[in-house]
Design brief:
It contains 19 helices and 7 strands. The chain has 441 residues and is α/β, with parallel strands linked by helices.
Length: 441
């Protein structure tokens, strides 16, 4: 080995040991880890101390590598397959992403991969052997094929790394792998002891406001909970009021009253954050479900790739599914139609009536925050108007976000191009509108 490659090879060997020791509690789950560490250091030690007595052992270790290098195309292919499958196994089993720390076991595994690559490339090598190898490759007709194959692998790896580092974000329908890992890395870690994306409640707060809702309330796609409108309201009031979140993604109106009643601290004011998909629980028939507008990968190898790797996942969902204007329009249209349908709207009215009655029995002030689709304000209008009129007729204070969002570029109001949940600006506008109502009491 050369000076630099040899140094890096030894560092990799040390890294395997250091991180493997840190990963010792999980050795029982990986019984091959200890034998692998021992083999690595035996081979490394033989190379570091090339005494005459160990020379035959070193030659025996190097013999298979020399035979492989004598067939350069095969040697190249083996290295490419080794790196591809080794890194692929790491990705599939550990799903490395932004916001998720690499464990000591993973670090030991990556150092092992590096050690193996350097071993194959440089162990007991020489300039003469490298020149012979290069000369054979220059004359081999399959070299162009290997260049193409290697380029594809590198491009795929680069795209996969980019998405995992810079594109851990949500989508509107929570289908993608990126969305799943956003929840794992940014949503669940923000939970308080009560299981909500919120800070701990203040038991002896002089006044309490509960924000009841779903993904619009918890701030799907917003990494920092301080940017969500419930937290902005608490900072805006700045008078000791405790603003608590009673919301989960996926909640519909049929579960919100129950969860409000189970909260350990009774609020003085309830803000109901309402979006059109709160009526989803009524859409039980297959021909009513908004999800019917999308296709999902069938079981098999293709499905496995889509589920485990971000590149095919991104291509399948974001480009083939979410960029379809027809699918998105149909999804929103189904929600609007449900509000205009007497049967489904009648069921929704019963749930809302029950929630209003609960707040009245418990002397709670109720404010309805009604969201339109930020990129489909006009398309949402018939359903939004239905909901706003319902609350207004019952004497409930209403904040209609349609007028507050109108006039802003739609892309500035949403989380990202594939997720129309309200972004930071929309949450800021919602907080400002609600603060105006809260201060008017």
């Amino acid at each position: 080995m050369g000076r630099y490659s040899g140094f890096l090879w030894v560092v990799a060997a040390f890294g395997v040991v250091v991180f493997a020791v840190q990963a010792q509690p999980v050795w029982g789950d990986h019984p091959l880890l200890l034998p692998v560490v021992i083999v690595i250091w035996v081979v490394t030690a033989i190379s570091l101390f090339p005494t005459s007595g160990l020379l035959p052992v070193r030659r025996a270790i190097a013999a298979p590598i020399h035979r492989l290098r004598s067939v350069p195309i095969l040697f190249w292919l083996i290295i490419l397959v080794y790196v591809t499958f080794a890194l692929g196994a790491w990705v599939v089993h550990f799903q490395p992403t932004n916001g998720k720390w690499i464990t000591p076991f993973e670090a030991a595994y990556l150092m092992l991969i590096l050690w193996g690559v350097l071993f194959l490339l440089f162990y007991d090598g020489s300039r003469e052997e490298a020149k012979v190898l290069g000369g054979k490759l220059a004359k081999n007709a399959l070299t162009g094929v290997m260049i193409t194959l290697t380029t594809i692998v590198f491009l795929f790896a680069g795209a996969e790394a980019y998405l995992r580092i810079f594109y851990i974000t949500t989508d509107a329908y929570t289908f993608t792998a990126m969305n799943y890992w956003w929840y794992q890395n940014f949503y669940y870690p923000s939970f308080n002891s009560l299981g909500f994306r919120d800070y701990e409640p203040i038991p002896d707060a002089p006044y309490r406001i509960a924000v009841l809702g779903d993904s619009f309330t918890v701030g799907q796609g917003i990494n920092n909970i301080d940017d969500t409108f419930p937290q902005r309201i608490e900072r805006g009031l700045n008078d000791g009021t405790d603003v608590v979140v009673i919301a989960q993604t996926g909640w519909d109106t049929d579960v919100e009253e129950y969860n409000l009643s189970q909260y350990p601290y009774q609020p003085d004011t309830v803000i109901l954050s309402y979006y059109l998909n709160d009526i989803d629980y009524t859409l039980t028939a297959p021909d009513q479900s908004p999800d019917r507008n999308f296709q999902f990968p069938q079981q098999g190898l293709g499905s496995w790739f889509v589920l485990n790797f971000f590149v095919p996942n991104y291509l399948y969902y974001n480009l083939l599914q979410f960029t379809s204007a027809e699918r998105n329009s149909n999804f929103l249209g189904d929600l609007v139609d449900a509000h205009l349908n007497p049967e489904t709207w009648g069921r929704q009215v019963m749930q809302l009536d029950s929630l209003i009655a609960y707040t009245e029995r418990n002397n709670m002030r109720l404010i309805a925050l009604v969201w339109c689709n930020p990129v489909g304000i006009d398309a949402s209008a018939p359903a939004v108007e239905q909901v706003v009129n319902y609350f207004t007729e019952r004497g409930i204070e209403v904040v209609d976000m349609s007028e507050h969002l109108r006039g802003y570029p739609p892309t500035s109001l949403i989380v990202n191009s594939f997720d129309t949940h309200p972004g930071v600006l929309a949450h800021q506008l919602a907080a400002e509108a609600l603060l105006e109502v809260l201060r008017s009491e």
